[in-house]
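Quick one: structure tokens for this chain, please?
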Amino acid sequence: MLLETSESLNRHIESENTTISEVFESFRKNCHDMLDQLSEAQKARIRLCQQQMEGIRKHHSKICEELVHRMERDEKRFQKLLGIN
């Protein structure tokens, strides 16, 4: 009887160990999947920010070019008004 109880307890412990291992493996897999999803979402946000920054950079560059041309035009006009060549 004692041997049967011991064997039963061993089977129960093995079953619990298996269940715990399966739970931990499932948890580990879910954590890795979640980290992969977060990483992909972050990459998408970075790409969007880069696209927005490029648009802003182009707009800023255009404004600066327009200002330079305007200043050059104004300088030529003032030189002409003042008779400076």
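The CA atoms of residues 49 and 55 lie 10 Å apart.
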